[in-house]
Amino acid sequence: MKTLEFKNGDKMPAIGLGTWKSGKDEVKEAVKIALNNGYRHIDCAATYGNEDAIGEAFSEVFNGGKIKREEVWITSKLWNNAHKKEDVIPALKQTLKDLQLDYLDLYLIHWPVAFKPDVDFPEKDEDYLSLEEAPIIETWNMMLEAKKQGLVKHVGVSNFSSMKLEELLEETSENPEMNQVELHPYLQQNDLLEFCSRHNIHLTAYSPLGSGDRPDGMKAKDEPSLLENPVINRIAKKHGASAGQILIKWSEMRGTAVIPKSTNENRIKENLESTGVNLDESDFKEIAKLDSHFRYVTGEFFITKGNSYENIFDDDDYKA
């Protein structure tokens, strides 16, 4: 499998298991299946509400002795209600406790949006902290402090546009090492990919298969299906592969990491087997034509009238 190499020589496997939308009972088994079938990269987040179950899986697998903790790349994310500088380290320590770990390989600021500490998800303008009350640079500096303390090996961000990244880069001497964003043939984000490459920031693709299992309230009417796209399926037939494998391989061959989510044993195995697929130049040319700047996860759920994040996605390479 391809890996993404960091400045200190650490290598992150390009294909990981995503855990968003996975219930506690099913995610524990899914993580165990993934690790026992060759996955060495698991992507988590505090807001997914299942890190304690994932921690049970880690404990059982690592205590089994066949797979060591240091062989697995584990990512988690700081939720939006812990952006104040005094809340970052405690939130991280809670994640470590839930995951039953001493350290994370990668910790990300989940969104460039801040809630008040007692708010899990905003319902009104007053639930937010303004950018003045919780500046991103203060949150970022505490992420760097977590790295200094040895609680995490690498730090980065998620859902940051090139504009938001540029603002952060102007204020910090230590750039994010990763940006995790929605990325797939309908939203190829070529400008963002070029920007991150220029600044030595790796990219991880989430919702690479179209996130068809997310709640109906987050779906657009008549949204297009990646897995049913005729171009993707024609290429899949050509290579004797599934549509999902083509989508995963496309991300991997572009030099990004990719974290398809599944709790189905056969699908988990099939997703990793995409490493055996090789797309050719004609495949890439066909897939390039599919870019429609369509976003499955729009971020509109953060917009309440009047809050300071109304224009969070206002730059060209991040518009839905």
What's this, in brief?
With 320 residues, this protein is an alpha/beta fold.
Report what the structure shows:
Strands 3-4-5-6-7-8-9-10 form an eight-stranded parallel beta sheet. α6 links the parallel β8 and β9. The chain has ten helices and ten strands. The radius of gyration is 19 Å and the shape is globular. The C terminus is likely disordered. By secondary structure, it is an alpha/beta fold.
- Element order: H for helix, E for strand: EEEHEHEHEHEHEHEHHEHH
Average pLDDT confidence is 92
Strand content: 5-15%
Count of alpha/pi helices: 10
Helical residue percent band: 25-40%
Using brief descriptors, characterize the structure shown.
320 residues, alpha/beta, eight-stranded parallel sheet, 10 helices, 13% strand, disordered C terminus
